[in-house]
Amino acid sequence: MDRPPPAASLSPQEWEQLLDDFASSSPTSRRYRWLHLPLLDLAVSSLPRRDLPSHLKPLLLSLVDDHLLPPSPRSLPLLLNTLLSFPADHPLRDHLLTTVVSAFASALAAPVSRDHDAPPLAALADALLVAANRPNHAPDRAARALACDALRALDAALPGLLADALGHLYALAAAERSPAAQSYLLLLASAARHAVRLGRLASTASILAVAGPPTPFSVPAHLLSAPQHASAAPPSEVNLRDIRKVLALLMDRPQVLTPAAAMEMTSILAEIASAVLEWAPAIAAHIKVQFGGMAYSSSPMLLHSLLVLFVQFPDAFGAQDERTMASRLALAAREAHRPLPVRLLALHWLLGTGRFTNLVPGLARWFYPSIFDPLALKAKKLDCLAYVTAGIDGEKAAGGRDSEQLTGLLDDGLSCVSAFRWLPARSTETGVAFRALHKVFVGTAPHSTDDTRCGGAGELLNSTIFLHVQAILVEMASDHRGLVPVISEFTNRLLACNLHQWAGEQLLRTLDERLLPRLEPGYQLASYYPLFEKIAQNETVPQLRLIELLTKQMVSLTKDHGPDTELKSWSQGSKVVGICRVMLKHHHSSHIFLPLSHLLVLTIESFPDLEVRDHARICLRMLSCVPGKKLRHLMGVGDQPSGVSPSLPGSLFDIPSQRPAQDSKSMTDLASYIHLERIVPLVVKQSWALTLPNFSVQSRPSGYILSIQEVSSTPSEQEKPTGPTIERIGYTQETLRVMDAKGAETLQILRRYFACVPDYLHSSGLKIRIPCTFRFDSEPFKHVWGSDLPVSGSDGADELPALYAVVIAFSSSAQFGKIPSCHVPFILGEPPGSGMDIIPVDNQNREESSYCASVVIELEPREPSPGLIDVSVAANTENCQVLSGSLKPITVGIEDMFMKASVPPDTPKEGVAMYYQDLFHALWEACDSSSNIGRETFLLGRGKGSAAINGTRSVKLMEVTPKVLIGAVERYLASFLVSVAGDSLVTILRRNGVIKNIVWEASVSDASVGADALVPYSPDSNLQLQLIDDDDIRVGSGRYGSENKRDMGCMQVMIFLPPRYHLLFSMEVGCASTLVRIRTDHWPCLAYVDEYLEALIS
User: Fold this and answer.
1) Domain harbouring 1053, CATH code
2) Per residue in 628-641, pLDDT tens?
3) Minimal CA–CA distance to 160: which of 102, 109, 216?
4) CB-based contacts of 726, cutoff 8 Å, min separation 6
5) Is 1065 part of any domain?
6) CA–CA gap between residue 902 and residue 265 (Å, rounded)
7) Digit-coded pLDDT (tens) for 997-1039
8) Domain containing residue 926
9) Are the CB atoms for 1077 and 955 separated by under 8 Å?
10) Alpha carbon distance 77, 116 (integer Å)
11) What are 810's strand-pairing partners?
């Protein structure tokens, strides 16, 4: 397939933009606009251009190296042609050569296509061989060395590429005497290694045979076909001789190799020599002679190279060589001028190589950490000292050496991290010190391959190092109380291991014998409680000393008790009793009965805390009444409850038994006899809720705004909230300034009002409360839970079932925020036929009942919409059973969201009614869709969040008589009524006396009021009630001749919907119908208002 014609070249400015996009650390979207172009072809073809600035050309090559490799195979000819046509003396030729070779090495793999990939590969190798085939040519030795390195890279990517030219490479390497000889030797070594891997040594033809000049080069046949497995036949005599010649040449001049080149060379030599070592064993001795001197080098690379030869040819190096190498590694770890990784690597080589294991004890004096050594190096050196200590102690246990050397090694080693004795227990120095002590234990009794205990445990328990470590731990615990938790954890680690459990038990016995007699009772003894609990848990440790010390402690706590130590006394007394419970759980009661009973009796009689005395009384009762085996089983049943701090003894909270789980069916039927019911029934039985998708601002059409959008003023860097992102209004953020007097007054009222509305995004919002009652039926409860108590009438309260510690949890998918749970400590079941059913009364209160508990559900709505609250209950029964399950959900209606608007604190009490009326008119104006106030933003409470108003209007015609409407308003909307206008309406509402503290927009002294009112009024006479039929409250021509069908008056209702929305009603009341004009700044609530108004008058 022919290559497509090249795209137009990019200008220098475009190249600079492209390079900037690729070098940017921003997301890769900036690079996508360039990826449709053939960037590799454009970059390579732009290199010879003279109009391209010289500083861009190396950047283009770096772009190819970093982002455009591996290339497509069809781009290889262009790369090759560019390289061959590039001037030889150009400063970028070496960089271009490296790029082209990298492209070929990354794009090609065996087998190579004979028609497409083989020709450019052969041409590139031919050009490189031509450049390298001039040995000792001084002016271009750097170019020749680069050509050799390029050939080696190609040979590594395509193994065996130069296998047929091995003879030429041998001649070139032998003839080269300039500093470029290193590149020639490495090229020869690489080609020889691949020849060995391909099985060329088994051939009868010489691998060094030369049939002609090295150029023109042709790709070997094995790279043009599928790879085949190399034969395992022994090498032929001629090739064995040739490979020895190659090895001799490679080892002849190690002095011309850099440390990095020497490390690579030794790796290749080890592989080639290992392949023919069986037929030429003298090669190993030759390698030792040539490279053994690297042991005296200061380069870590050369030391690593020699270690590779040590491992590969163990028979070639003797004991003296091993001692020399071990000394060099130990010395390298001590040299402070070396980098930390090199010093750690030297110790790792010394301990990780099995050749130097028996030499490490003789180098112990070099492993002492210096005070200024890094902590990581100290830890590694302490590992070496632990290894030496364990080895010497093993010889002593077998009958060998003095014990003073052992203790000296460990003590002198730990002195470098002696700060751990006064540093916090969590310090790194403490961890290093105890890690070294654990290494001593593990080294003294190493882990075996099978899961059995150490066979020589008896001898090691009496070994010098084990006794010395025990003495160190006892001194630490006695002198440094802060280390007690670390010692306890150290003991836990030993006890948890099957192989070292005996060491942990012996350590606990030693602490019991040597540490406990040193301790004095008092408040500071609490630091040792973790160790005391470990001693109490172990069955092999006698408990007499511990019980005596705890008895003294309880006496001391009783004497020192006072008003300021009540909490300390309770805490430490509880822990002591908890340790006693641990003893009951893990020891035979016959062994500890007498001393433990004395301790518990002393606690019961004299300890000042009541709770501790009760716990001690329970323990004493179990100790004296329950047999030992049953007692231990009883104490072992049960888990630590959730929420209890693990620092206290876990057994202190063990429950004595666990009742079997109840049938799941009984849990699902809880709602049939356990009830949580609303006290105030809903006007509208809501069975649906409107859910709107939460679209982002960016996805909305232009100019679209939510009803009240959440806007945030820009805070300072310190005040930027980390919570949810606050939505911004869709219009420009520049506020429209209203210049007329009416608009300015409206804005002033709204700003003053919104400053009182809390911002729930930055603080707690307003909460609504739903009062409920909680009760359960006795008869079905007894039937399900198997209570043996008879259920009688209401007078037999002692015989009724009861629930304890009732927790009622709530959850909801609606936006009600986190709903706190409610707790009922105790409640009796409701007896059958008691007549105590829940009946709502006029004042919306329940009849008092001893079988009902009041529960208040607190919601913090994020959206004023109805929803359901899922209810779950958990409680304890009298027989220690636990019941849990779901109850019937609680319905939340739109009327539950109704609240009165906030009043600024500086408003006088007599001015509240007028303030509400002004606020109603301001909100009514702001919710008008034609108003410009919707462009304004109003700061909320605390000045962080803001709100913008975008109102919606609606109209509702209710065909209802004035009597029904007035009754519904007085019952459900009285507290939200702002003002009443109209003589007739004012007279009726004032007569009823339900609505107070509002603005009455009719003059009560006007004579016309009494003339047209349903109930005539005169200040000089009493009210005369006129008998009218219930359905005769109508305004017709006979009674109100001057009024039309809706001119009785107007009622204005203002309702606040949390968190910061409003619902406004203007009710124009007539004789046969009422027109309700509705305005709101939260249009979704209109979906529920229509049903609410219908239910209001039904």
Assistant:
1) 3.30.310
2) 666 666 666 444 43
3) 109
4) 710, 711, 712, 761, 945
5) yes
6) 86
7) 899 986 433 333 333 333 443 434 444 444 434 434 333 333 4
8) 911-1003+1045-1096
9) yes
10) 9
11) 871
